[in-house]
Amino acid sequence: MPVAQVPGAHEGQTRAAVVQLLLEEGPITATEIGARLGLSAAGVRRHLDALIDTGEAQAAPAPRREGRGRGRPARRFQLTAVGRARLGHSYDDLASAAMRHLREVGGEAAVEDFARRRVQSLLGGVAPVESGSGAEIEDTAEDIAAAFTDAGFAASTRRVGTGVQICQHHCPVSHVAEQFPELCEAELEAFTRILGTHVQRLATIANGDSFCTTHVPVPPSDTRKT
Fold first, then answer.
1. pTM
2. Which pairing describes strands 155-160 and 57-59: parallel, antiparallel, or unpaired?
3. Rounded to whole angstroms, how far apart are CA atoms 36 and 29?
4. Which of 42, 208, 217, 218 is most buried, by the most CB atoms less than 10 A from its CB?
5. Is 168 helix (H, G, I), strand (E, B) or coil?
6. In angstroms, rounded to a whole number, what is the distance separating the alpha carbons of residues 51 and 20?
């Protein structure tokens, strides 16, 4: 079922809707974009071609195929670093300068303390896991994703095998985090503390990946029934 009907909308609004899907669900196929937005194949191609021409989108690397199947897999598209940058990174230069000054004045400890306080301000409303059950871990991971979404990270969760992954499709501070990895490290510490289990960071936007992904193991015999 399409999430929006935009064929008659202003061209800029339609382009923004395509960009939003690339951000939140990419890599995604042109067919999926058309189905979600009620666009024709020609309309999807027009917007994708324009975004690729400006360097804001690109075709994602083809997934590794297990075994030999029929035909080629459909091409999937995703935003580039340029595309994310145009979504807005407020006060990057000022924030980076402030962080550098903090490091000069207080050293690494001051930067680490700031990073922890920042994450606490984002996740202060998320209650830590108490029972350690799979269902509680999954619910808490969803609470973490919701808190990050409220802060502009476009986060979500997904079940993968016997675990759950927290995915942040956008990072409003990625340019600063490139220079100060303490911001990402503090997030990981907070996830571990709140979820009560060892978590693993698989990818980060600050390192050039398409999105930030954190894997959270869930007891296989105690996952929530779906």
1. 0.64
2. unpaired
3. 11
4. 218
5. strand
6. 12
